[in-house]
Amino acid sequence: MSNQSITQLLLRLWRHISLRRRGQFGLLILLMLTASFTEIFSIGAVLPFLGALTAPEKIFVHPLAQPINQALRLTAPAQLLLPLTVAFGLAALIAGAMRLLLLWASTRLSFIVGADLGINIYRRTLYQPYAVHCARNSSEVINGILGKANSVLFSTILPILTLISSCMMLITIFIALLVVEPIITLAAFGGFGMIYAVIVLVTRKKLLFNSQRIAVETTNVVKSLQEGLGGIRDVLIDGSQITYCQIYRNADLISRRAQGDNHFISQGPRYVMEALGMILISMLAYTLAMQVDGVAKAIPILGAFALGSQRLLPVLQQAYAAWSGIQGGQGSLQDTLTLLDQPLPDHAEQLSVQALTFKYNISLKQISFRYNAQTPYVLKSLNLTIAKGSRVGFIGTTGSGKSTLLDIVMGLLYPSHGVMEVDGTAVTPANARAWQVRIAHVPQTIFLSDASIEENIAFGVPKDRIDHRRIRQAAEQAQLAGSIETWPEHYQTLVGERGIRLSGGQRQRIGIARALYKQADVIIFDEATSALDNETEQAVMHAIEALSKDLTLFIIAHRLTTLESCTQIVELDDGDIKRIGSYKDIINTHRNSDKTEQGQSLHAN
């Protein structure tokens, strides 16, 4: 947890609020000021109204009443009661209407800002480099967007607006009551203020501690849900439901207890203050009643104080509850700001990116890579040149660096040492997006959204911009069109969450069709045919072979026979190139190696 104060955190949050929203906050402050002044009028109106009820003759002869008497042509004290009743009622209605308007405006603006923050976090997260996504748990991001950004709305934005509004109300109520009875007003405000100050000092550390627990445990709750539901097949087979329920319970219970403590701390003082307010009014009534003309004099003052207290105590409680909410949400605010502070690449603001020129070759020069300084090198001083239009196969044992090498080729990862060049231009974070425009990727595990076949093939393309002709052409090349066109909904068939309604082979072919739909210059197949049977795999590979000779293919395969049509095959071993050759060369080398191993085994026996 950061050592930054709440003020510093709020300033960081303010930087992420757009200029338009800042202007709307300014208008809201003006509305708060207006609503505060209506409170003065509503409290001030009670004095002449109650005075007209108890001693109308005193009000009738009062200098301030003369303009009203003349304007309304009043001739007797009793005639004042109706206009003062109407005036008091109007003042109360206007004050209530302003409070309602203020509530609507502040709530609406707060939720809009909350939506802005959630969208901003999601956008910045999607633009982060692949290495960042590899290094952190997705639960943190999901909880940051859905949970903590929402928490910032309720524990920071709304409370701040409430606190500002409450402070303005307190000042105006204080001024109004100060005019009525200065000594008692000062005593009341001083007493109530001291009580809340003591409560603040006592509860501050507890609120901060709880905020940290809530921030950590809400992430653990999301993590337990993701892991339990994401691995539901293994959970059902292993019967490990109790374990995952216990993980969820431990995290959720701690979080909810902390939230409950914070709620009690924020709401508890209200009941103490209400009791003290009643005692204050009763003492004031007794003091005034003991004076000359006590009852007549006491009723207007008591009415003003009763109305003022009815406004004052809730506003004081709102201000305190807002402060405690801000303190209690400090942990979530810190985590949310960490996500909001994620840097955006230069191309994030560009609607389109000019593709990097690719006419000749891709060169890997002295490429070494490791994920961080504490981990070993996955690739070691690797050199490789691939001409445009090549079909390059990659083989090697698990952990030999095949997928990492292709991640570097795709511009997802950047070499720790060395450089990758496209037609002599080094691929760097600054121009990686321009290179990725030319690339399509078919991974071993295809991600499918809960949408139609068509939308999954044209992944990321708005529905109204999908080219239906290209969809069908890509599906045919991926040996998928025949199956799709036998289904009732054809290309509008829904695949279910993560493609659960499709077989493994069908999901894999959608991934291949997706890459072909993109019409890229370079297609990366990372064991993309591993889920296909031999016959379908051969049909797909023949379709791939028939593609344009200008298309450059990188293929990782678990079966060497899949790479038969490759122009060259690269064998990796322990992060380095073991050998490069044609399909026949590699096959012969492996056959000779197998014979040698068999001979050594027989000799040993």
Give a topology summary.
Layout: H1 6-15, H2 19-54, H3 56-60, H4 66-72, H5 81-126, H6 130-135, H7 138-180, H8 182-230, H9 232-238, H10 241-267, H11 269-289, H12 294-328, H13 330-340, E1 361-369, E2 379-387, E3 391-396, H14 402-409, E4 417-422, E5 425-426, H15 432-436, E6 439-442, H16 453-457, H17 468-477, H18 481-484, H19 504-518, E7 522-526, H20 534-545, E8 552-556, E9 568-573, E10 576-581, H21 583-604
Parallel strand pairs: 3-8, 3-9, 6-7, 7-8
Antiparallel strand pairs: 1-2, 1-4, 4-5, 9-10
Helix pairs in contact: 1-13, 2-5, 2-7, 2-12, 5-7, 7-8, 7-12, 7-13, 8-10, 8-11, 8-12, 8-13, 10-12, 11-12, 17-19
Mind telling me which CATH architecture of the largest domain this is? Up-down Bundle
CATH class descriptor name of the largest domain:
Mainly Alpha
Instruction: Specify the oligomeric state.
Output: single chain
Q: Enumerate the spans where pLDDT stays under 50 for 5 or more consecutive residues.
A: 597-605
Number of helices: 21
Description:
The protein has 605 residues and is of the alpha/beta class. It has two domains: 19-340, ABC transporter transmembrane region fold (Up-down Bundle); 361-604, P-loop containing nucleotide triphosphate hydrolases (Rossmann fold, 3-Layer(aba) Sandwich), CATH 3.40.50. Helix content is 63%, strand content 10%. The chain contains 21 helices and ten strands. The protein has helices at 6-15, 19-54, 56-60, 66-72, 81-126, 130-135, 138-180, 182-230, 232-238, 241-267, 269-289, 294-328, 330-340, 402-409, 432-436, 453-457, 468-477, 481-484, 504-518, 534-545, 583-604, and strands spanning 361-369, 379-387, 391-396, 417-422, 425-426, 439-442, 522-526, 552-556, 568-573, 576-581. Mean pLDDT is 75; it is low at 597-605.
